[in-house]
Amino acid sequence: MKAKLFINRNEEIGKIDRRIYGSFIEHLGRAVYNGIYEPNHPLADDMGFRGDVLSLINELNLPIVRYPGGNFVSGYNWEDGIGDKSKRPTKLDLAWLTTETNQVGIDEFQEWARRAGTDIMMAVNLGTRGPDEARSLIEYCNSETNSYYASLRRKNGFEKPFGVKLWCLGNEMDGDWQICHKTAEEYGRIATETAKVLKWVDPSIELVACGSSDPNMPTYGDWEKTVLEHTYDYVDYLSLHCYYGNKAKNTPDFLARAEDMDRFIKNTASLCDEIKAEKNSNKTINLSFDEYNVWYRTKDEEKQMERWQIAPHLLEEKFNLEDALLVGCMLMSLQNNCDRVKIACLAQLVNVIAPIMTENNGSAWRQTIFYPYMYASLFGNGTTLKTQVECDGYKSKEGWDIPYLYTSTINNAEKRELIVFAVNRSLTENAVLYTNFEGFDECRLVEHIQLYHEDLETTNDKNEERVFPVSRKIESSSSAVLKKHSWNMLIFNY
Ligand code: AHR
Predict the structure, then answer these.
(1) Domain 17-379 in CATH 3.20.20.80
(2) Does the model's pTM come out above 0.85?
């Protein structure tokens, strides 16, 4: 198959906010315990954080990590995770039907984040709790005063405030699985009042209100509008969450979910703008896509498991090449919508639907999805340009026209580089991609990284990394062969 890519230097979508390459650590399964934290592991550091896991995380150059949930946050008492570890209570976590030992809390997590070179995106509990504990938490984290919670932080050994700049007002409050699920009216009110007290304590923070937990929620649309009617003047972003799966074993359709994500983003941006117009506001609400990934094999696992275990194997999705292709496309969708999406979190980071896996007291390794994520974070920086592609295609189950190639192009003006990300969704044909760049001095292809395996179901595990990126030989300065069902990154110098 022949494909043509057209780029015009003047057709910019927007500058990428690096926070779209964020991730997420929830107190869930083995994400925290035996994931980032395992004090008895031979590679644990002085605080019990696994050094091998930190090294893999460092490869990703993460701008932000959302914490501590997820569903977990809606039943969490943050005060249980501070101060003397021997005095911390052990509690039942009703979100995942497990036992929380509280050996890691914000005291430890902020230090882990520092060691991982990342910032925290903090979620507050708007399920069982509300504005009162949210204001105490931000006082503990960010205040330099001599007030009770700021002094408590100092007493616990942290002289300097943690300086958490990004805060989520609850999690997935539209879902009936959420502890203390709310109607849009109820959530809109509590989110507004919480937003006010948080910003009164620290006016420099940014706030994210909960949008829908999936585009197929029956309340999608109405939820966004009602929540924004209440919160518009008090928040900065609206969240989107979405997980895709291939239960039907229909790969072309699964890979077409990239267009579904595009549509979800564009529709949600329109909903924000509808309220903007209604309020005659000059403020724009941008988007925080703070949970996305492939997730279907391990859904609802907690319901079948023995209850109240500590750090059980939960949601340990084993990703194959096909999943990496879709995650690669989802990252491109975020880049292509960077005019509105300013924050995004791959859910999650370690063991729980994660690019990084660990064995208790053993090794750590990279899943297939690690690679498109790493390359997007390392190279997808600059200004996204509109990419126009001419190639063959197919129809999705909705009857949409799906081109075989899904692409994004980023102009890194500082480095004089054009970075083209591309997934070839054809299951049978390689694509010869010819490029046409307008407005640039001569562009020369200098690097072609490809993720490919003959078998789309191939996975990585602790014994062997079978799906890994390969640097392809450059045969021409303006074209490249994108193998059937492969993910690619092309770097052009100009
Ligand atoms: O990431 C796993 C779970 O998915 C999160 O806890 C929740 O917010 C979402 O439903």
Answers:
(1) yes
(2) yes
